[in-house]
What does this fold into?
Amino acid sequence: MKKISIAILMASSFWGMAQERPELEEIVDPVGPHTPVILMPSIATDRPDITESAQITPVGWFQYEGGYQYSHGEESLPGGSITDRHQFEKVLRFGINQRFEVRAVINANTERIDQPSTWNDPMRRTGISPVTFGFKYNLIKESDVLPQTTWLSHISNSWVSAGDYASVYPEQIFHEQRLMLEKELTPRLGIASNIGISGGMNGTNGFVDGGMFSLALGYDLGNNFGVYAEYFSDWQVQGTQLFGTPYLDGGFTRLLSNDLQLDVYAGFDLSPYVNTRLNTSGLFFGAGVSYRLPLAQHLR
It folds into this structure.
């Protein structure tokens, strides 16, 4: 459960597909005789699920995706812990061209970590986690046969952090690489999947010591409402052993305009029901808002 916030941050979605893909909005040239000058699809976001969207932010547009998440996780192994986390998430995206976007991810957290096996008082952390910088690059455009396929690369630097988190990961750099697939099955139903690896670029953690897999379905409910259901697994290497933690989550999205979306979601750890090697349990829920606006239309 400790890695939920990292996964969601680096994370995961394809909620342009959670609403039915509408006909592109037509903007009329005010100086011409009703001449169409630009066609724009509705906003496609990475939140609220773990599955990152394979869509690229439109060229010259800035996109903000933010929200609040509460999570509670318990590890019952010897030396286990109980963690309660309040997290305020921000993802900033900017489209450079039709295949490439740059992005930054910022998490402000307040954590309470209790270790029942010790007599120590619960530990508290407040601050900004190592800020993540990265990009998405579209490899294959969606066709009748092939899914939209995009590569994501993230770097998190402990030097760009604040509060208690400035000393939690001293002088460490982390990376995540993820392949994202997305396909429209019907005008109302879409499917998406991510597979990724992560690890440290210095220190002793190892270049690849973790990863993830996700599979999500999104469905248009009509009237600009969407719903999704998702399975994802967060895995990590400890010593010579590989451990996986599975989760199930779902939520709703609501388009208020072509460029503004609201979301709510909730999920839980499946480990108590599937007998995983790590004895964990937990839940999480949250809500957020996403919007976009043109910053550099001359890039078109």
User: Anything to note?
Assistant: The two ends are 42 Å apart (CA to CA). Residues 4-9 form the longest helix (6 residues). Residues 4-299 form a domain with the Porin fold (CATH 2.40.160.40). The mean pLDDT is 86.
